[in-house]
Every structure is written in C-alpha cells, then in structure tokens.
Amino acid sequence: MMRPPGEPFRTGDKVEVSIDKEGFRGSWYEARVARFMPNLALYTIDYETIVVDTQDCRPLRETVPASNVRPRPPYLGAAWGERYAIHQLVDAYHNEGWWTGAVSEVRGEQYSVFFPSTGETIAFRPSEVRAHLDWVNDRWVVPDPKRMTKTEFREGRLVEVSSDEEGFCGAWFTATIIQLIGKKKFLVEYKDLKTDDETEFLKERVDSLHIRPTPPAIPVPEKFNLLEEIDAFHNDGWWEGVISKVLGGSKYIVYFRHFNEELEFGHEDLRLHYDWIDGRWLRRTSQALLGW
Prior knowledge:
292 residues, mainly beta, SH3 type barrels, 24 strands, disordered C terminus, Agenet domain-containing protein, Agenet-like_dom
C-alpha cells in the first residue's frame, strides 16, 4: 500500500536510507521501517543489504534522522527511451547500495557509469542501473539537465563550499572563486577561514560537487519554529541543524544531527535552510523532514 503524501512511514514500509559517514555520502540503501519516533524525528530501520558483520548475517539495525529516509523510487527503466543516454544521471547498484553517477559509455548490454564523488568509472548490467530521481518536498522530481548546467561559476563569484573531511559534514563556508581549474575544479579563497598562522585567508582547490552559489537573500522570519530546519553560523561556517527548543529572548537550542550535539544560538546567527538541487534552491518543510 502506498504511503499517503505527508504522512510518516509505517512499521514494515520499504524505504531507502542515506548514511552521513565519510565514504557513504551520495548513496542510498534499501531498508524497512522498524519504528518511528515522531518527537525526535527519528526512524529505527533494518537494512536489507547490510548485515551486522561477516560472522553475523542478521540485518543491521540503526536509528537514523527522518530526513535521511525516503520511499523507494518508482522503477522507470531507461526512462523516455529504450536505453540510457550518454551523460544521463543514473543510480547504479554498487557495494550494496545505490550510487549516483552519469552514463559515460554504452557498450553492448553494459553501461559505464562515472561517479564524480570518487572519480571512478565502473561497468554495470542494465539490471544494476536505474534512472536518477530526487525526493523533494514529498515527491519525486526528475533532474533537469539544462537547469543543472545553467549556473555559471566564474572568477570573482561569491559561493559556498562544503568538505567531506571528518568533523565538517553538514557545513558550508563562504568563499570567492579566484581561479577556474579546468571544467570541474576551482581555486577559492575563504571569507572567514584563515591559514594556521592566521596571516591570510585560506585558499583551497575544490571540485564542482562541493561548491554552490550563495543562498538567496530571503528575509529571516521573526521567529523560528520547533523542528524547523535552519543553518546556524558557528566556527566560521553555516552548519545544518534543527530547532530542538525555542527559548525566550530570541534564543534557540539547535540540534546538529551530524554530531548528535545541541548548542544555543541567538536569532541573528540563524537562517532558513535551503538545498541546492538540480540548479535551483529548494526548501524542505518541517512536515517533509518528519514525514508528516
């Protein structure tokens, strides 16, 4: 039975789960819901393809944020044609999960898929590849290739940069592009991060997967709501979090799921959280975050 839009997943529902750990970002794993904890916005799930360890073949059970859980996408086959096209975004089944990449070559009954996150190209059978869809605002969205290539990252442009290094998951740092390096790499200078000796602003090479425009200048609401997704300015960057408690005096307790930590912030250090998806800014509502 299909889950009605806006309602939480039920026990036994088939879902996919993302894992916020180094080496797993960008992948989704098939699982079933074991329990929903609405007050904490958490699901306990049993993976269908990941086991406890090599000696124990029971399905691994984990408790994960509701924002890391989505329905399983509809099967579209090659979508809009009998075969996947060169450069088409797809998900490929690899290492027990679905990883996003782009078709780089079609040879006979095999697709070569390039994974930007690792730089690898791997061959897959048709049964191991599916059309890529994004789960946005409680519905499946087909990526628009034209929109994805519209954004122009040029020298002098103000951007935000993320990092896969341990301890930086969920953070974006403001920077300026100072040099283009080929088609997919940039030399940036950070606005707030400095070198170890504090003498100048840090410069770093980044790839296109870790760079985005600065979010739109949307007015901050007079008051943030409980469980609202926000970004908090902390340690020279904007960190993704959730309002876990509304205090008096325009103060809030923010929960950072990447570190399982809570900190207090003033209203002036918070902004609405937006995701940069397929060349446009999208905002997840608290209902979408919780599955309501």
